[in-house]
Amino acid sequence: MVQKKFPFIKKFLPIIGLFLFIYTIYQLDLSKITTAFFSVNPLYILIIIPFTLPRILIRNYAWKIIQEEQNIHVPYWTSLKIFLIGYFYGSITPGYLGQLMRIPYLKEYTGQPYGKLFINSSIETIVHTFSMYIMILFGAFLVLSEFPELFMIAAGWMIILLIVLFFFVRRKRGEWFFKIIIKYLIPKNFKSYFYQFVETFYQEFPRVSSLFFPMFIGFFTWIIIFSQEYLLVYALDLCIPYHYFLFLFPLANLAAFIPITFAGFGTREFTAVILFTTLFAIPGEEIFVVSLLGFILTDLFTGFVGFLVSLQEARKQGTTLRKLRNQLIKLR
């Protein structure tokens, strides 16, 4: 019964984010949103965009460290192109899941097993996101007196995440879990493919100690992206201290990881408006513009660069769909 209902429910998940987006606008004043949007000095936009370059260079460097730890040897600039292509797909899919499109490109270049490349891409995302969780914990501490439950929720979530990660770090436990899933949940015709996929998950699995430096580097990428968005706060003359925005806006960004709309469209804006209008005497319309325009100038702009890179790669080696089809044929 549940399996039959889920595909039906899944069709309507993207509507949730759109509903939240429309609902947020409905609760605000559309004319004030428009006024705030056009009151942003274009000079600030010209300042924001160039900071995308160091952000993606630093994050790709962190990913390269994890690649080398797993003996996945890809030149830095090739890795950057693959990263940008994955970013493009991530920016147009729910929960940024499209980032996994890095895998077929890595496979094409390295010839490494899909399972190993899946783990590499997943670990990079987890490590990068975990650095944001630490920032959220600091943010929750800043508003401890106003929202005491927020700190407990953030700390509890991090503890649960650490327990889950600790469980899967050990090969025996991880393989046991995935084999149970395959045995009982995967159709018989696909079991062999999934067993083959899972068997390479722990091939040259990175040492936990080797992931601390990439996580540390991740802080700088988050600081850059939230500083880019803070320039919009400054442009609109909103009374939000920089350190509060730096550690609280990640909460709104976290809502974007809920896999219901493309790149968190609607959920981010809804969370940002509630959070900042509650804590600071600022108009909801203006923080709405900060969230939406910030998303356009950071994530969507980076995704657009990735789109251009993907077009260039498509011209060189055929369409992405054809490449994926060929990879699937090889799996057979």
Describe the structure.
By secondary structure, the chain is mostly helical. It has one domain. The chain is globular. The two termini are 31 Å apart. The N terminus is likely disordered.
The helix content, as a percent range, equals over 70%
**Mind summarizing the main beta sheet?**
none
**Radius of gyration using CA atoms only:** 21 Å
Oligomer: single chain
Query: How many β strands by DSSP?
Result: 0
Low-confidence stretches: 1-13
Alpha carbon gap, first and last residue? 31 Å
| Estimated structural class | mainly alpha
Approximately how much beta-strand content do the residues carry?
under 5%
Order of helices and strands: HHHHHHHHHHHHHHH
Q: Please tally the helical runs, counting DSSP H or I stretches of 4 or more residues.
A: 15
The outline comes out as: globular
| Average pLDDT figure | 85
Total of domains: 1
Features:
332 residues; mainly alpha; disordered N terminus
Task: Explain briefly what this protein structure is.
This protein has 332 residues and is an all-alpha fold.
Q: Topology of this structure?
A:
Elements: H1 2-27, H2 30-38, H3 42-48, H4 52-69, H5 76-91, H6 102-110, H7 114-142, H8 148-169, H9 171-185, H10 188-199, H11 212-235, H12 242-255, H13 267-279, H14 284-317, H15 320-331
Helix pairs in contact: 1-13, 2-14, 3-11, 4-5, 4-7, 4-11, 5-14, 6-7, 7-8, 7-11, 7-12, 9-10, 11-12, 11-14, 12-13, 13-14
